[in-house]
Design goal:
Number of helices: 22
Shape: globular
Number of strands: 5
Radius of gyration: 25 Å
Strand content: under 5%
Distance between the termini: 81 Å
Order of helices and strands: HHHHHHHHHHHHHHHHHHEEHEHHHEE
Helix content: 55-70%
Largest sheet: 5 strands, mixed
Length: 530
């Protein structure tokens, strides 16, 4: 009787936790659409809309595989979707579903190693993870990839593993790589996992299982990205280009050292609620708990599955870290579900289970103390979605105060919504290509070809520009943070000189603050050239 009651209570608790997770991911899901969207979302939403409109399903860009884009295009075509708002909302909804499914995956993976308390706590960490919340609310394939990666790893960790588990793991891995090429990291996971978890008696059995897994992976991936083989050369060239970009870093998004993902205080400029390190996203208590859980996992060589997860987390972080490399916390995202599972198991087995009295009360108190920082961070972000975006507020002022036909400089990337206004816009050329610290033989570099420089004010005057519309999501990337000063010194210096001239030779006609005043959207400033 008591065991049945325990199962009922744990099931009820999980349903409540999942309901909270779903709510956090769909709350004001359409906030800002379609005027304020994720900077790279046009690569998926725009491409899917183009496919449906033209009937041409051959990709025009080969940076990403096709699962997410083809899924969007299929839905747009099936339901005759026509509006830009609906395009983006459908993309966000798919991400929200994947983010909710990730909570489920974390719970069931944790249940492989611990009982209800550890599994429920791990799923709570996933529910309030600001990285998961963020990518569950934008039309991009990151959350889909992480869910399928987690599902693939979970499938390979069962104690009694059979051939069906290897096939299913290959399918999940193929779906992960079909969402984003980062899913290819699972190729490194399979051989070690097959050897340690399966514990075979012969090398032939290991090779047989691996063959089945990789076959299922290859078939699934090619079904999601059918143009991969016909366009193999273009895909490989693009993948190599992305690899080089990640090696050399981006202004405002470059690692200062191997420990940046642990301690960096630099913001994610285009998503200021999202930090770039464990400390800024998880908080000190939870980061410390994670570090201790990793040490605990390394000590569990008698439990090869826990030990395997721990080593995978460490190897993955090592592979994406290094001074001068591109820095974005979304690169860390694939191992966060595994880390949450490890923390949940450690808390339960090494702390809660050692208590003889007040176990429930002390366990809940510990869980609350570790969850407090990520929960408050998530609540602060979602609370900001109640207010209008800065893009909407600024657009209304610009429409009312700048005459039609006026020549205006529009800052890069995050202000495309104002293109609908009857103004003559001047844009900087090839901005995206000039953000990276590439060697001369590979591509452009803002240190050789600055984006902002003081003489730009004179060039604006020569073009007859009367107003400049600046935005912090792009411009703050040139801030004098330590890693920028080391790797992009000229870009930082030239931007500071540009700002000095702008503030002395132009009048600030209007400004609206974003994150600092609880709004989503960049700080937007409108200057009038004197």
């Amino acid at each position: 009787m008591s065991s049945k009651r325990l199962r009922f209570d744990s099931g009820t608790g999980f349903i409540i936790i999942l309901a909270i997770g779903v709510f956090l991911r769909i709350y004001h899901l359409d906030h800002g659409l379609p005027n304020l969207v994720y900077v790279d979302s046009f690569k998926f939403v725009g491409e899917a809309a183009r496919m449906v409109a033209s009937g041409d399903f051959q990709p025009k860009d080969y940076q990403y595989p096709s699962l997410y884009t083809n899924l969007l295009a299929s839905i747009y075509s099936l339901f005759h979707v026509k509006t830009e708002y609906a395009y983006y909302l459908i993309g966000c909804f798919i991400s929200a579903l994947a983010g909710s499914a990730l909570v489920v995956a974390v719970f069931f993976m944790a249940r492989l190693f611990c009982s209800n308390f550890g599994a429920l706590f791990a799923s709570c960490l996933s529910v309030f993870c600001i990285t998961s919340i963020t990518f569950s609310r934008i039309p991009a394939p990151d959350i889909l990839m992480v869910f399928f990666m987690t599902a693939a790893i979970y499938t390979m960790l069962h104690e009694r593993i059979s051939i069906k588990h290897f096939v299913l793991a290959g399918v999940f891995a193929g779906l992960s790589a079909g969402s984003k090429f980062t899913g290819l990291y699972l190729i490194l996971w399979f051989p070690v996992s097959a050897w340690i978890v399966d514990r075979p008696k012969s090398i032939t059995k290991v090779l047989g299982h691996l063959f089945v897994t990789y076959l299922a992976f290859a078939v699934t991936f090619l079904l999601t990205t059918p143009w991969f083989l016909p366009m193999l050369n273009l895909y490989i060239q693009r993948m190599l280009g992305e690899f080089k970009i990640q090696q050399y870093g981006q202004v405002g998004a470059v690692q200062g050292g191997y420990l940046d993902y642990f301690f960096s205080s630099t913001a994610t400029w285009g998503q200021p609620w999202l930090g770039t390190s464990f400390i800024t996203n998880l908080g000190i208590p939870l980061t410390l708990a994670g570090a201790i859980a990793i040490l605990w996992g390394l000590s569990k060589r008698g439990n090869p599955r826990v030990f395997l997860i721990t080593v995978y987390i460490m190897v993955y972080i090592f592979l994406i870290s290094g001074p001068g490399r591109l820095k974005a916390f979304r690169f860390v995202f694939p191992i966060l579900p595994l880390l949450y599972v490890l923390i949940g198991c450690f808390i339960e087995k090494s702390l809660i289970n050692t208590l003889k009295r007040y176990r429930t009360i002390l366990g809940l108190a510990l869980a609350a103390s570790l969850l407090a920082f990520p929960a408050l961070k998530t609540i602060k972000y979602l609370r900001a979605t109640i207010n209008l975006t800065t893009n909407e507020i600024a657009q209304e002022w610009i429409a009312q105060n700048i005459s039609p036909g006026t020549k205006v400089f529009r800052g890069p990337l995050y202000l495309t919504h104002i293109n609908q206004l009857p103004l003559k816009f001047l844009l900087l050329k090839n901005v995206g290509g000039r953000l990276y610290r590439l060697p001369e033989e590979i591509g452009p570099n803002p240190e050789r070809s600055p984006i902002y420089y003081p003489e730009l004010i004179d060039e604006f005057r020569n073009y007859g520009v009367q107003y400049l519309i600046m935005n912090s999501y792009f411009d703050d990337a040139f801030s004098p943070v330590p890693e920028n000063i080391v790797f992009f010194p000229r870009s930082v210096k030239d931007y500071q000189m540009f700002l000095k001239r702008l503030n002395s030779e132009a009048h600030l006609a209007y400004s609206v603050k974003g994150w600092s005043e609880h709004r989503i959207g960049p700080d937007i400033a409108v200057y009038r050239l004197e």
